[in-house]
Amino acid sequence: MGTENQGYPSFPARPPPPPSSSSSPFASAPPPGGAQTVGFRPPSSQPTRPFTPSGPPMAPPPVGVMRPGQSPFVSQIPGSRPPPPAYGGLPGGGGSFQRFPAPPPPFPGSQNPPLSGPPATQTLAGHLSPPMSLRPQQPMGPGGYTSPPGPGFQQSAPPVNPSYPGVGPSFPGYPSNQAPPVSFQSSSQGPRPTYPPQTGGFGQHPGQQNLHPSYAPPTSNVQGLAEDFNSLSLSNIPGSLEPGLDPSSFPRPLDGDVEPNSFAEMYPMNCHSRYLRLTTSAIPSSQSLASRWHLPLGAVVCPLAEAPEGEEVPLVDFGSSGIIRCRRCRTYMNPYVTFTDSGRKWRCNICSMLNDVPGEYFSHLDATGRRMDMDQRPELTQGSVDFIAPTEYMVRPPMPPTYFFLIDVSFSATKSGMLEVAAQTIKSCLDNLPGYPRTQIGFITYDSTLHFYNLKSSLSQPQMMVVSDLDDIFIPLPDDLLVNLSESRNVVEAFLDGLPLMFQDNVNVESAFGPAVKAAFMVMNQLGGKLLIFQNSLPSLGAGRLKLRGDDPRVYGTDKEYALRVAEDAFYKQMAADCTKFQIAINVYAFSDKYTDIASLGTLAKYTGGQVYYYPGFQSSIHGDKLRHELARDLTRETAWESVLRIRCGKGIRCSSYHGNFMLRSADLLALPAVDCDKAYAMQLALEETLLTTPTVYFQVALLYTASCGERRIRVHTAIAPVVTDLGEMYRQADTGSIVSVYARLAIEKTLSAKLDDARNAIQQKIVKALREYRNLHSVQHRLGSRLIYPESLKFLPLYGLAICKSTPLHGGPADASLDERSAAGFTMMALPVKKLLKLLYPSLFRVDEWLLKPSADHDDLKDVLRRMPLAAESLDSRGLYIYDDGFRLVLWFGRMLSPDIAKCLLGADFAAELSRVTLQEQENGMSKKLMRLIKKVRENDPSYHPMCFLVRQGEQPREGFLLLRNLIDDQMGGSTGYVDWMLLLHRQLTVSLLRCVVLIECEICQEAHKVTLNVYDLSQLSASLLGKVIEGVWHTGIVVYGNEYFFGGGIQHLPAGTTPYGAPLRTVEMGETHVPKDVFEMYLEEISPRYTAESYNLITHNCNNFSNEVSQFLVGKGIPDYILQLPSEVMNSPMGGLLMPMIQNLEATLRAGAVPNAPQFKPQSQPVGPNPSEKASKSPVVVQPSASKEKVKEDPLGDARTKIQEEITREFASLMAQGTLRASEAATIATKRVMQKYGHLNVSA
């Protein structure tokens, strides 16, 4: 047919995105496409300038080509391709740098494209041709055709059932009919049209048509072998205006977390990846190489991860010789140490120190230098081992396993049934608590008063003592509140039996949560242990009482938004610090259906190494099984008590930051009162030396802990990684799971100090930078065109990045998730190991109705049943039954047209009722038993949590949307970005960078290079005693280029280099060279000048350094040093930062108002400084003003005021030092205070 594309799949058209004015890709933003999201300005009657705040202008497209809402990244139908954007010097754009227009290619009239279908490895459709000045020359194929890009990505997802492309019409992106996908075919028969290629610049030959990627000769074998990366080619389907994007061929992790195995094969003696996973198994050899690795350089550690049967960690006892460690760096004996001097000495693999071998540990060496007893020494052959620690590793006798229960017994706790379920579960677990017969146990209950219980073994019934004074808590009976379980077993069981009845008629709704925690701390601080808190309402009495917050929607989207997600009262963090000091870990179980301020309560768990369990709207009939399972696992799983964790790295590398639930005791020591197999910790690495000289780097994780049996042990995991000089090798050895775990933790932490939009955008920018850098590695050797390329190891990274942005802690706005729900999910994700986190981010979806209809067999292979499907509405068939599993919830989705016989077999008589009122129970038939067996298997695969089972029928809104549809990551739902649009958004970000490179290339051809430097000035000396931490300086910066220095004060100003009022710079940083002409640069400054005015100046968030960074990015493609940009955050994160903020704001307001007397002001001029020599010698900077503004540029109210303040502080400082009675730091502090006090911005009593 006329437009038939044989051999190429047909794609259903996606519905258009909902209109929106937001530019965020997540907060009710449309997908990238349409007039509002294009990075270039639409055509207008006015002449366009090369630089605009939103990006370069778009050249006018041909009439009828670009439709509203259509993606700007896809080509148009043959014969109507729009010219690319005119960006300054883009060829064909009509800009000022259009100097070398490419001639049109010869038009092949006699040869047609081959009629074969696409290659076996399909690529996605959708294409944006790059500028020809950036494309390497491509060899011409037969008939004048260029060779296409390299092979695309192999389709990893099974084909979607064509009988059902979608379900109900209630949500965007959710097909409303059940017609099969429409093939793009013409009704008339005829020969297939030819699509000659476009090979010359941007100009299109009259009558020339676009070449679809599948209509081209196959790539040569040489190129196919050379391209060791995957790629996605983005174009449209011939004969259609719709983008031909086949979502089914997008890379998806349908096989779950696939760990890289090349690293394990290379170093078989490394510890297993379940314990330690590096973000890349290739360590950069230099800091410059590390700076090009835009992904996190770090690791995820799960020291007590559960090992399969037969792979348990061996236990080693050195006996009288004691623990063998390096005398210098304290590294433990491991498989990578070497023995010399006939076995009498051993060399440390971390620091290369030569150590003596104790006599009891001596063994002869064989001819290869290997110990004769190597096979009998697990510590020398295995990467993970447990050492029994001698007494010198104990500051006190090993503590017994201790469980203390703090239980809310207010009205809501008893009414919901929580109290009864908790008491029954605790009683059922008494026999399985670890540490018998040493285990200790105790209880406190509370409402508006505190109830202590005497559980002494000589009593037949427990005795309750009530303390009502919440301001002065005391322990009525210190010795018998925490008792040995084996001795007081009968009393404990009697207490648990009577607890629900004791408070069944309680109508008290108050909660003395804070005093109860303090009382529990007073009871436990002698031994330590695990404190389990069951909380049902917002704390309302005594210390730590909280108020309802977050009910004002106007706070969202402002700089105050993040405050809702951090603890309101400092009591909670201080209480957590005290508990950690005394080895008390806290787990919080929260049950209320109303606001409970999980952000504050969860702080207790975060800093004590615990975790948060959240059961919103708890009802025992619904949530009882989940609470029973998770509480039982919490009580009975093996736990490491009074632990500390340290990670040692090889020479030249160190751990720079840690992320997870813990308290950082020192720079590299994590305090963990309790650790178990369900907790993991992430850290980032940094290079201490400019260049690593060793071929490998070693890592050793050491966890010193007390086992439940009473032994003090050291769990040691050791691994080695090669040092490489090739950035490509770092990408090839990348571990997506570890990278995503670090990214998720960083994003959640960012929500505690910034807006949700900022956290989501940070993830997006990190991925874009990584893909851009990887592209640069291959842009010269390969014909990339506009393909989005990525390494095999990171093919799932974009999807996981989208999943992080759509996860509960970061998703949407106030209407998408409650404050408590966000906080609870954040605390949970911060502690999850890699596999559990990846499953939560991209859950499983599989179809079960076809399997249920098959004959039952005792040996059913559930792997075939649990075959995952893409998380998209198109995966759902209205005639099917599906299970959605994210590790925390199981959702059974019943299609609208599912056979009634299946529904009746599974649900019984309630099969036609509203499913929100139906509970799934086993029926007396084989199909029901088969389904229940499957659900049991799914839960057993991950026993960490107990997924609740929810039933939903297609079309039941809003239940279906809440439980399933909004969790379909691939779809655009509720204003969030879908997978297709996300990939296009990433592609657009890369394309903008590509267009900038075109400008620079054109400028480089035509213009000479100009040196760019950064002048750094120190405006004041803030002492450590004032801030509470050392601050090197308060930086002001300016960009020096074209003989001028450009800086931001009361506008964009410039003066001849060396004549600014700031004096001589403290240092000058070489930024590189630029080929951007001066006139282009000045036009760029005009475009950004509306954002850099006296009114927009902010000492913390929008200052001279932000301006210098943006200008540097434009001129040389890189920003200014991080230590300058991060200064405001360092100051505000200092102990005195919060107190300095009001002073800074008042000072800024005073400076803007001109209240500082006799402060010399810069005199902005609307015209450049004239040729008069006296004018040239003056220090009045030229202010670049917006060309569109007709108002007179205001005088700079901030320009020289900072110099004025610094000069006064300097004079005061000199006067004080002349007295000879003060140290420099004291004199600086007093001088600063006096000057601030002079202008009324510092409280004398502060």
Automatic annotation (TrEMBL):
The keyword Flavoprotein does not apply. Residues 1010-1145 form the PPPDE domain. It comes from the Eukaryota. GO terms for cellular component: COPII vesicle coat. Residues 53-63 have a biased composition (Pro residues). PROSITE patterns: PPPDE. Residues 1-224, 237-257, 1158-1201 are annotated as: Disordered. One of its GO terms (molecular function) is peptidase activity. Pfam families: Gelsolin, Peptidase_C97, Sec23_BS, Sec23_helical, Sec23_trunk, zf-Sec23_Sec24. This is PPPDE domain-containing protein. It comes from Brassica campestris (Field mustard).
